[in-house]
Write a structure and sequence with these properties.
Layout lengths: L2 H25 L4 H10 L17 H14 L1 H17 L4 H8 L7 E4 L5 E5 L2 E11 L7 E9 L5 E10 L4 E3 L13 E11 L3 E3 H6 L17 H28 L3 E3 L1 H9 L11 E3 L4 H34 L5 H29 L10 H12 L7 H12 L10
Parallel strand pairs: 1-4
Antiparallel strand pairs: 2-3, 3-7, 4-5, 5-8, 6-7, 9-10
Amino acid sequence: MHDDDVLAAVSALAPALRERAGDAETLRRLPGATVEELADAGFFRLLQPRAYGGLATDPGVFYAAVHELAKACGSTGWAAAVLGVHPWFVAQLDPRAQQDVWGADGSARICSAHAPTGEVTAVDGGFRLSGRWHFSAGCDHAHWALLGGLVTDDGGRPLDMRTFLVPRSDYRVDDVWDTVGLRGSGSNDIVVDDAFVPAHRTLGYGPVTTLRCPGHELHHEPLYRLPYAAVFTTAVSTAMVGIAEGAYEDHLAEARGSVRASRTASRTASRTASPPPTAVPGARRAAEDPFAQVRLARAAGEIDAARLQLGRNMTDLYAVARRGAEIPMELRVRTRRDQALAGERARTAVDLLMENAGRGPLRSGPDVLQRAWRDLHTARGQAANDVERALVHFAQDALGMDVHDPMV
């Protein structure tokens, strides 16, 4: 299987994913058929190491696939982006942990919940984990979970922030995901009751941030020398931009055939007997409304700007990694800045389209634009999409200040 084969297979799935978007919302998780089709297409292999049957592809291929999925169904694009990025993270772990995950099953999927909401206790040989972790997209379809946790001293003071790899047998999924947007992403809670995690299945944020991870002993592809903050945050932003572009294309097709009465026509009609709809004086196609045209153009510009910046940054990051050079902080904070702004631009674009669409999308029902609007405003709650924090980091670096944050 090659990169182009995966992209072609993903594109071929789009019609079925659009048809299933309503089913995903009703189920509040991805339909099983969707996950199996993604697996058969090779999507989950894109960022998986070659040593375990993956493609270890140019990251641009992965993001192109995420974009296509999100255009067809926002929840599918979001959950697939998150599930699909985790083989990259597992490749950073101790080789023994990678063998635990893929040694017996190279198709094993991994979900995550990185916020350190559970309790961690250091014990001989590893750690004990207990608690509840929220917002784990696609977790119903995963075999392992990456969970964040704080390691503290006897006085409760934090010593280290780590990620813990836990098998499905050591946790349960609590079905609590019932939201306005991204309803089909199945971002349920993960609950752990006193599970032991051996030390080799954990990784501190220090090695991840400095790009010196134990998995580098095993994998030498440049893909695995990228910052995790860039790889993960670009995945969710790409999904958001894909959602916006899907809504734009659907709205554009509808606007080409829709009719809108101008304000003059509405006032005239209110003072006279109501003529047949096709004969309303001043009625004209929405596509001919100059104000609608401006909003449409602005929405398209926001989407293009977001997509172009995301692509530029990942291309630049990958080029540095391929040279074996150290990735400069300037590029890392620029990537973070543009990632957060991409999500904001996607929301702005769909807000403009909603203004253009009139009252139709406000009715409950399977409206593509309405669903995109709900999905994007829900996605804003993801920590990666905290625009102000991302912009602060960029400005600090530009001003010559040190930047210390695991999201960079």
